[in-house]
């Protein structure tokens, strides 16, 4: 129970901190371009920092310049690992450290063709240079990696895994991989 309480407290603190940052960044009267920063939300559990400057356009929309969001999460060995940028946003959207991806295994790394990826306990988030980050995991990931992964004929994922009748499917720039009734089908384009 104690471990669960610490995780819940850390996640709750993260959500509260994100609310404070959003309120702080939403002040259009801030003319000095200052940056907001939060560090050490819960000692030993999670550290988050947000740094951004924005300029208001005539339509009232905020345009980020050099926005950088990241979090440091203890990996299985206890050393904090940074999760940042679009991968960080995707990670949070999937549940963060208490979600199905779990904690990170290592820092973000460069992928082929100027893309990037980061491995987590439950899967990997891949992001092509000019695309959106997608999660690949389980048997579909194993089949994709057996076919060369992002370096192979299937290239980067272009969708998250989705539910189809009898199983799951992930789409890649070079084809589709399905897992139906325990069987993998690899279909190149």
Structural notes for this entry:
Helices cover 22% and strands 34% of the residues. It has three helices and eleven strands; from the N terminus they run H-E-E-E-H-E-E-E-E-H-E-E-E-E. It is globular.
Describe the protein's topology.
Elements (H helix, E strand, L loop, with lengths): L1 H24 L21 E10 L5 E13 L5 E5 H9 L15 E2 L5 E5 L2 E5 L6 E3 L1 H9 L15 E3 L2 E6 L2 E6 L2 E6 L1
Antiparallel strand pairs: 1-2, 2-3, 4-5, 5-6, 6-7, 8-9, 9-10, 10-11
User: What about the largest sheet?
Assistant: 4 strands, antiparallel
Q: Give the spatial strand order of the biggest sheet.
A: 4-5-6-7
Query: What is the subunit arrangement here?
Result: single chain
The SS-based structural class is: alpha+beta
Count the beta strands.
Answer: 11
Helix content: 10-25%
Q: Ranges with pLDDT <50 over ≥5 residues?
A: 1-67
Number of helices: 3
- How much strand? 25-35%
Q: Order of SSEs, N→C?
A: HEEEHEEEEHEEEE
Based on Cα principal axes, name the global outline.
globular
Question: Gist?
Answer:
Helices cover 22% and strands 34% of the residues. It has three helices and eleven strands; from the N terminus they run αβββαββββαββββ. It has helices at residues 2-25, 85-93, 138-146, and strands spanning 47-56, 62-74, 80-84, 109-110, 116-120, 123-127, 134-136, 162-164, 167-172, 175-180, 183-188.
